[in-house]
Amino acid sequence: MKRGNERLKVVRDFVRPDSGRPASVALGLFDGVHIGHRQVLASALQNRELAPCVFTYTISDSIPQIKKKYLALTLDEQKCSILERMGFELVVMPDFSDFKDLAPEVFVEEMLIEKMGAKELSCGYDFTFGSKGAGDVALLQKLAEKHGVRLNVIQPVELDGQPVSSTRIRDAILAGEMDAASRMLGRRFSIRLKVEHGNQIGRMMDFPTINQVFPKHHIVPRYGVYSTVVNIDGKLYGGVTNVGIKPTVGSDGPLAETYIMDYSGDLYGKMVEVYFFRFVRPERKFPSIEQLKEQISRDKDSVRQDIAENIERMVFLDGHPEDIRRD
Question: Topology of domain 9-155, per CATH?
């Protein structure tokens, strides 16, 4: 996995941190790294005598029973980038299929304590582990006490009177409710995907666009047009993003097609991050390319109004929690 600096080590195997210190391990999938997850992660950063580590995992085709409706909010690279900024030293991230059949006791005693050198564990109140999720927080507490390991169990974080969860965030994104999703995430919902070649229809309409295809198991927001901000090499540009299947001209599957305001350049093959600010209108099929072009022009004017208020506001939340850092 490529990163801007190499302070964070990401591995598939259960190993001890390179620093040689005993480990403080945060446990969980941490999809989205939302404001509830950050409480668990913050707990694992507290003891400065221990090496801050994360046990998480990837999901390919083998999906945990309790996550049958799983749709990723963040890709693994984006998740690790957030964990690196928070100050973690090591991320152990096997595929779920690699450890799903381990007995709960084996997972804790052999993988976490023996192989990772864990002296402290942090998890959410509903954390489960081991084959078929047979282990729960009560068993984890019992095993931790047996081996002299400290366990921190974090209670749910509530927003608007309800616990924050990845499921609740997914529901908001699927409904196009980007403000609600972003408040629970603690940052704007975004996608960071490679720019693919499209059918060039946008360029023919004088609205050149970038196309980003959603990977398998990645959440696809409600189909429609969004006011967005595009990050290109650290510079922010206003964007008009259509999520869906482009019914007027057609596509092979759901993608994000973004017109980037006041930008010209070749982005094919590059990883580009797009922040979703506001749902503008549902996706619809137009009788002609000309009518589609007219609508895109109106969408562009609507997004320019957002930008006029402050493009930074479209990316960063008012009062959003800062990344918890270990200097």
Answer: Rossmann fold (3.40.50)
